[in-house]
Amino acid sequence: MTVEDHSLRLLLAGIDTYSQPVVYMHEDCHVCRSEGFRALARVRIDCGDRWVIASLNVVTDGDWLPVDAAALSDTAWAALQPGDGARGVFSHPEPPAAASVIRAKVYGERLGQAQFDTIMRDALAQRLSDLDLAAFVTACAADRLDFDETIGLTRAMQGAGETLDWGDRLVLDKHCVGGLPGNRTTPIVVAIVAAAGHLIPKTSSRAITSPAGTADTMEVMAPVALDIPAMRRVVEAQGGCIVWGGGLRLSPVDDILIRIERPLDFDSEGQLVASVLSKKAAAGAKRVVIDIPVGPTAKVRSQAAAAALSARLEAVAEAIGLDLMIQISDGSQPVGQGIGPALEAMDVLKVLRRDPDAPADLRDRALNLARVLLDMGGGTAARHNRARELLDSGEAERRFMAICEAQGGFAEPQFAPHRMPVVAPRDGMVTAIDNRRIARTAKLAGAPQRPRAGVLLRAQRGDTVHRGAPLFEIHAETPGELAYAQDYAASHPAMFRIEEPS
C-alpha cells in the first residue's frame, strides 16, 4: 500500500475542542476502514514536515464530510498548518511510553523522577489522550502523591518547558492557592512591589474551578497573552508584569493538566503544589509568598489542612531552591464586592485609585502581602509602611497603568447589560456566606468565559440586613444565563446564612 493510499484531503472542521487535537473521518472512509481506526483511537497525521497525534471522532450520518477527506479541529489545524488542497498521511502512532507508567500509578506504585519526566514529555508531545491524562490526574488526587513524588512532579513540569534567567537580580513572586472568590490581590501587589523598585514578573493562570483567575481579570484591563520577549520588555521597562503563563512555555504541561482538571472540577494537593512551584521556578523567582485562605467553604477548610499543605509547599520549595514564606489568611467569606473578571477588575482599580468605596478587605490583604514581599526583598522594619505609602501616594496606581500600557494598552472594565438582585428573605444578621455556592452562581451566570458576568456582593458577614434588601446582584451578558444563575440562587437560599434577631 502506498503513502497515497493512507492519505486524505484535509478540511477545517471549525470546531473548538479546547486544546485537544481531534480529527473527524466518515465511517465509510477507506483509511478509517483499512487501518481499523475506531472512535477515540489515537491517529498520527503527517502533513509536509509537520505532524500531530489526534483523537478520532467517526462521523456516521450527514453529508458534511466527504469520504475522501478528514476534518481537523481548530487545535489540530493549528498544529499542522496545512495549505490549500493539502493532504494528510494517516498512521497508527507508536504507543506512548508514559502509558505503562500511568497504569503503574493507577495501581498504587510510587513513581520516580524518570517516570514523571516520561509522562511530562509524552503529554507535551500530545502522545497522551485526554483519557490517559484524566487517569493520571485521578491517580494523583487526594493524598496519592507523597513528598518525594511531589518534588519529582514539580521538577518534571519545570523541566518540560523553559526557565527564565534574570541574571543576578532578585526576583520576587506571590501566589494564592485559591478557593476564595474575589481575592484578586495580585495586580495590586505587583503594582506596589514594582513601584518599590523590585522585579516581579508575575505569570498567572486562567480559572480552573473558579469564576475568574488572575489572568482572566487582568485581561479585562490589558492584554495578557504575551510571549517571552514581550514579557521581558515589559518587566525591563516597568519592573513587573501580570501575564498569562499559558503562552510562555513556562511549565507548559501545567496548562495541559489544567485542561483536564477543569471539567473534573478538582485539583489535588500534590498537583497544586507542583503546578504553583514549577511555574514560580520557571519564571525565575527566588523568593515567593504563598497566601493560603482557610475557611469552611474555601479550598483549604481547616488549620490542620493548611498546615499539611504548608509542609508540602515548604519541602518542595527547599528541594528546588525557592525561599518561601507562607501566609495563612481568613477564608470564611469572599473578598471584595465583585466575583467575575470585570467585577473583580473594578475592585482592583478602586483600591489602586484610592476610591472611598474601595473594598477594605481587598486593600488590607494586598497591603499585607506586599509588605511581606518587600521584607523578603531586603527591607527592614521601617519598610512596613512602605507598601501603604506607595499605594496612598498614587505611585502604585501609576505603575499599574504603566504596566498595562506596556502590555498593550489599558481598557476600563464595564458592567454586564443584564442584572438581577437576590434579596434577604428575612430580617437579621449575615453570619456566614458559602464561598462555593456564590462562586457557582457566578459561573452559571457566564464567568469567566463571559468577562462581564458574575456576582456583585451587597452584604458581608456581620452585616445587619432587612427583608427585601439586596444580598447580591447577578450580572450576565444574556437573559438566558441570567435566568440560569437566578434559578440556582433561588434553589440555594442557604448560601447566605441569616440569623433572625433574638
Automatic annotation (TrEMBL):
This is Putative thymidine phosphorylase. The keyword Ligase does not apply. GO terms for biological process: pyrimidine nucleobase metabolic process; pyrimidine nucleoside metabolic process. PANTHER family: THYMIDINE PHOSPHORYLASE. InterPro entries: Glycosyl_Trfase_fam3, Glycosyl_Trfase_fam3_N_dom, Glycosyl_Trfase_fam3_N_dom_sf, Nuc_phospho_transferase, PYNP-like_C_sf, PYNP_C, Pyrmidine_PPase_CS, Thym_Pase_Put. SUPFAM superfamilies: Nucleoside phosphorylase/phosphoribosyltransferase catalytic domain (SSF52418), Nucleoside phosphorylase/phosphoribosyltransferase N-terminal domain (SSF47648), Pyrimidine nucleoside phosphorylase C-terminal domain (SSF54680). Gene3D superfamilies: 1.20.970.50, Nucleoside phosphorylase/phosphoribosyltransferase catalytic domain, Pyrimidine nucleoside phosphorylase-like, C-terminal domain. The gene is deoA_2. Its EC number is 2.4.2.4. The keyword Chaperone does not apply. It holds the Pfam family PYNP_C. It comes from the Bacteria. It catalyses: thymidine + phosphate = 2-deoxy-alpha-D-ribose 1-phosphate + thymine. NCBIfam families: ARCH_P_rylase, PRK04350.1. It is an enzyme of class 2 (transferase). Keywords: Glycosyltransferase, Transferase. Belongs to the thymidine/pyrimidine-nucleoside phosphorylase family. Type 2 subfamily. GO terms for molecular function: 1,4-alpha-oligoglucan phosphorylase activity; thymidine phosphorylase activity. GO terms for cellular component: cytosol. Residues 429-496 form the Pyrimidine nucleoside phosphorylase C-terminal domain. It comes from Pseudoruegeria aquimaris.
